[in-house]
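User: Hi! I'm a student and our assignment asks us to look at how structure tokens line up with a sequence. Could you show me two examples?

Assistant: Happy to help. In each example below, the sequence comes first and the structure tokens follow. Example one:
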Amino acid sequence: MTTRTRAISSVAICLVLRMAGSAAAQPPPPPPFPPVTAPPENPITEQKRILGKLLFWDEQLSSDNTVSCGTCHKPGFGGADPRIARNPHTDNALNTPDDIIGSRGTIRSDATNKYFRDPVFVLQAQITARAANPFINAMFAPDLFWDGRARTTFVNPETGLTSIATGGALESQAVGPIVSSIEMGHDGRPWSEVTAKLAVVTPMILARNLPVDMAAAITGGASYPSLFAAAFGDPAITAERIGFALATYERTLTANQTPWDAFRAGNAAALTPAQVNGLNTLQASPCFVCHTPPLFTNNSFQNIGLRPIGEDNGRQAVTGNPGDRGRFKVPTLRNVGLKPTFMHNGQFTTLNQVIGFYANGAAQFPDNKSPILPVALPPPTVPNVVDFLANGLTDPRVRNEQFPFDRPLLNSENQFPNPSLIGGGTVGSGGLTPAMIAISPPNLNNIDFKVGVNGALGGAQAFLALSTQPPAGGVLISPTMHGPITLSGVGNGQGFGTWQNPIDQTMIDSCDVYVQWQVSDPAAAGGVAFSPVAHLRMIPYLCGGDMNCDGENNGLDIQAFVLAVLDPVGYEASHPGCNRAHGDLNGDNLVNVQDVAQFINEVTAQ
């Protein structure tokens, strides 16, 4: 097709759509919202749904206990990631046009889960190379991810055999991030490691404010083997079953109660006059060719000329077809008003920017650009279009995170980190202070617990000091020493290393643990450079009735307990670093009369 022919075709499409929009005050309604179907190999059951919901929100599914599926996919943000994280992309320079606004994953770690210096992110959290796609209503797409690499045929990642012949895109998508060395895993993370970990961890031990269905599922000390047995008939934990459970949960997340849905069903007052005007404008434009109601996507792959194809060839990487170069999945417009960023690279942060791009910037990189572009809306209608998109297509259950879109509060969302850092350390070679890397939460049965050191003298001998007493003068008192560990790297500030140790009941019994790196360094005072101290408050934190952490049990602890139950935010603000799980003293993820009894027992036992 010649350039002239494409241009004529584009104009013709626009004219036909505009004529159709103006010829009828009430255009024919779109087809009804499609029913949810599941592949016969993975029928929907309540036991699988709740298992999938637990797995989706459990940060222990990652290799360092800091990332869950839900970390990057929060319903209140349209199922996308509210965190703004910048990936320098191909030029390795931040704040340049090719930057990607992606999601924070894990710190780079090697095949043994020891910290490893990444050439781009060093020893900071890695950032994904594309923005997080919403997971809500994803069950209606034949292929998933921006490039469609999660195919309809689901292949068991452990056996290589086909588990689902067709309709298994959700299962294909679900198993990818768990073993990704950027998103939730470490380099070469095997499935055997994932399944063995789930067999011993306490479900949701890191989360708070569990929804009713999640709390009920684990009441009484349910384990993941017992939850898998309820869902699949026996306690075996496999990659296939993890994918089946996660996909089942996602198939229950149908967001079809927007004002537009009510309007289409006959409630003329469901949309405001301005929103109706915005809807009519879109109906008279080419926009709905790709963003087709009722899903507001046709699940096709298009190249809108956003960035040069050399930066990311999109769909072509999956199909190998040159005609797919630069093509990315058309996202749904449902709940688009909740999203913090737009496009596969997160380039835009407002709907006005998106509309302006389609009117003007779509011609910037024309190689293989879809012929329907550019699309310019009449400027006076743009505010109404934005109103319709931002409000008329938002399901209030999604916005308010109400069932089935409810969720727990993640450990990574805690405003008071655990571990937390104390003091500033002391300098060594090059005038640099060894940095403490302490992000892995110290929870019971965390078999992946680790702390790292960075910015020390390369090749030096390092010890990790451990004590149950807080530091004095920035140094731990009478600690036990673990090591030596020979640091990787060469030169001043280039040394890094890792100490790995499972968290078991003996450490939990200590309640508060303090760790500090001590690095042999001839340039440091006394020949030793000290890192800051990391304070670990063991999870669950069951350390007597001292609710305000003043070292005594008295009436002030009763006040602190009541505050922890009634106003957990106020409790954390007034007792930083003294988190008693918001009143959940018995560690069952619930705050109820049992916690009052636990508190009384703890006080009287002292």
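Example two works the same way, sequence first and then tokens:
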Amino acid sequence: MAHLLGAEGLHLEFPTRVVFDSVTLGIEEGDRIGIVGRNGDGKSSLLAMLAGRLEPDRGRVTMRGGTTIGVLDQADVLDDALTVGGAIVGDAPEHEWAGDPRIRDVIDGLVSDLGWDAPIGDLSGGQRRRVALAKLLVGDWDVIALDEPTNHLDVEAIGWLAEHLKRRWPANQGALLVVTHDRWFLDEVCTETWEVHDRIVEPFEGGYAAYILQRVERDRMAAATEAKRQNLARKELAWLRRGAPARTAKPKFRIDAANALIADVPEIRDRIALQSLAVSRLGKDVVDLIDAGVTFPATGTAPQRDVLRDVEWRIAPGERTGILGINGAGKSTLLGLVSGTVAPTSGRVKHGKTVQVRTLTQRLDELQDVWDEPVRVVIGRLRTTYSFGTGSKAAELTPGQLLERLGFSSAQLSTPVKDLSGGQQRRLQLLLVLLDQPNVLILDEPTNDMDTDMLAAIEDLLDSWPGTLLVVSHDRYFLERVTDQQYAILPGSDGAGRLRHLPGGVDEYLRLRALEQSAAAAPSRAGSAPAASAEPALAGADRRAAEKELAALERRMQKLGEQIDRAKHALADHDQSDYAGLGEKMKAIQEQQGEVDELELRWFELTEQLG
């Protein structure tokens, strides 16, 4: 492969510390490199030096003649005076950019819902991010450098970006450098991972999963020097192997080595014990939403709007649920119904007598009253210990120990809250919420400003939290990691949002959204004629019967899934020399899985008819 970009003996020093010391790297045609590391260790500085935007104190960056580099910064650098179209294609005539398939694909994938003449200054943060990405991706670059490209993007936009980057260049052409904390994105796009730590850059083969495996091996060989990071990494690896089937099916690292490393790692969460403890803390009744709906009244020029309608959701003790939906779908309104901050305009919401709900918001609300106080003073006013875990794993930690577990050093305890980094403020905010001892915890985009190691630490903490957990997040990896099931808010035929269970998880949500978008585009493709429906709309008794069948299907699929999980675990205890017995058990599992597949097909048919 041809050489594109290189770095020799890079040294970078800030007034208070040395960031890099004698770093030498090379980037070849076909490289797809993810850059990970703790916040503040120099990931963005490394990217800036390689892109020629930051001069090293010593060493040099070399580039093959004629190589072009496109860069996406973390900071928003769009001109508010420009329009969406002007920011993306500049003054190019329409026939030039409209005739380029790649430019059309970028525009359709990222900004099709934005007005072409809309002023940049009127856009939200997420919309501006998509415009900035589109502006970069319509260009023709040999190397693309992305600094936190998934910030402010929803699950759909992140999925589109991953697919675009995978097919942007032919094999062994072009190069990608990406700094991101989105672990799903790293695994989906990257074939090599660079870890930035301790003034060096350490390369690993493969995406995030392969990097975790190799890091565990490295840490094991280094004995006890990084015991704490090793334990977290091993638990992370156990999740990667035992978690979502779509991820474990990818041959991105050596299965035998992975199995050996996690042989003595217990299940990520003891669900039965945690649910039992949740019942004892909550009782059997948590929050029931019964035919609940929310309508926003007309204000000024804005008409009345039905946000949610006919929401039926009975939240169970110990339930761990992720909520998906586009911006504006009604996710915050749904969580407001659960927390009691939003009153239903139809139906009712019933809260259990012992329910204590706390929400980790996207804003730093919990920190406003202690903004000028040192961290030590803030935690000094809290309870002396925090209990979590079950049985022999139960533990009592002081707030200081919890802070250490969340990545705070002793020196940072004397730092005023306002002077902490964004990630540190977010971690302190989570600690304040947890120490209030709620039994229902709502997390609204909790991964903002977190690096991959800190996300793993927070996931580890939540594994032992015995309560009901509801999560809204665009970070697909985090959502799948900490929740056991997912729901989506999708619009019904009247435009109001309906809550829908997703047996197929995030993949199913993306499929349903693609169907929805195709249906919406069909009238315009047919000259605004109504699109022909694959299934006639259901009404009256037929609709009620379909809804009843749908609920029965979901219960049956959940029951079968649990039976399959138990049967798979039982295989490990079976006599491994009894091939006949193992074969019978595997045949039974395959039959159950076949039944699940048939039920899912029927489920898809019903959901499309009811949609």
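Here is something you could point out in your write-up. The longest helix spans residues 540-573.
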